[in-house]
Write a structure and sequence with these properties.
The protein is an alpha/beta fold. The chain is built from eight helices and eleven strands. The strands form two sheets. Strands 1, 2, 3, 4, 5, 6, 7, 10 and 11 form a nine-stranded mixed beta sheet that branches. α3 packs across α7 and α5 runs parallel beside α6.
Length: 257
Amino acid sequence: MKSMLHGAPRSRILIAAIGLAAIVSTITILVTTAFSRPPDATSDASLLDGYRHVEVASVSDAMEKVAGQRIYLSHKMRPIFTSRFAGFAVTVKLRKEENHDPNALDGMLAAIDQGAPNSVYVMAVEDGADIAGMGGLMGTAMQARNFSGAVIDGGVRDTAYLQKIGFPVFALGSVPSTSVGHYRFAGANIPVICDGVSVSPGDIVVADSDGVAIVPRARAAEVLAAAQEMDFKEHSMYAYIEKLKSIEEAVKKFGRL
């Protein structure tokens, strides 16, 4: 009996020691992994999260600084309601052509049904300022597939419904017309010219109240880093300007305008 009483505490101590060693080992592995394998800043999720938190004006400036390119859409491209989004371009091109072909626009719809979450539907409608490239039905399908938004180099209709469901669209204007019978699908996920700017499938499209900018996928990480730095400087300047009542002094200090 005595040996059993003496043995029980020793076994408990041994079990506790083993458990503690296992916990320490697990923590060591987790910490080592965390520091030896930093998050991939170029992953799709990381890029989109970053672009969703920077201003389009900074992205535009960063593109000009990093790549020497001015890749933003014109003042004509306006949102149907105040919105901001970022996503990867799914491109579609429509060619102007009078027809009676019921399948003329099938590819336009297939591009939606094949689109992945976080896509931005970028449509180039040939001479389409007064033609609705999309409306409520297409917007509903895009939202159901978790698209980030749409940019239409043409018109948009059913804007009240799109506002109701909260699907963001930038377009040249609101028009009641249809593309059915007047246009033919000319390709998807190909390079297109949208409002004068070249957009390739997979490019990052960012939009907010200032407009829309395009970032080639290959330059996305470095452009984001530059845009984040510009955002930080500009946001830091507001309080500095208010305190000194001088924008000149703020620009001298932060080098941002």
